[in-house]
Amino acid sequence: MKADNNKLSKLLSVWRRMYLSRATEAVGDQWQTEAMRRIRLIGPLNARTGFMELFEQMVWRLAPATSLMVVALVVVFLVSGLTQGNDVLAFMNDPEEMDLAQLLGFGG
Questions:
Q1: How far apart are CA 6 and CA 107, in angstroms?
Q2: Residues 12 and 59 in one domain
């Protein structure tokens, strides 16, 4: 157990020295140039060519807009009332009791 603690303390001291020495070293422009060169060597990612892969990408792009539309329609239906069809049904069943002006909300 003490041997493991000793190894751990040595490892931590090495890491501590490396971390503290890192702040004193300056990174030049050569580092950025070299990093960008390596990125360019990687090349482009594989393009998606299958129908299902392209379809999946389109579905996930449209999912937020579709969700917002569903929420908006639910709000519109809840605000306007879901039973507006009952007025038309009452007019069809007994047209003498209710005329078109009353159905549209113009008459009393």
A1: 94
A2: no
Residues 6+ apart with CB under 8 A from 57: 48
Distance, C-alpha 41 to centroid of its chain: 31
Q: What range defines the domain where residue 16 resides?
A: 1-43
- Angle, vertex CA 36, rays to CA 22 and CA 18, nearest 5: 10
Secondary structure (DSSP) of 46-73: PPP-SHHHHHHHHHHHHHHHHHHHHHHH
pLDDT digit string (tens) for 73-92?
Answer: 998 888 877 666 666 666 66
5 with 38, same domain? yes
Residues 81 and 99 in one domain: yes
CB 90 within 8 A of CB 75: no
Query: 43 falls in which pLDDT band (50, 70, 90)?
Result: confident
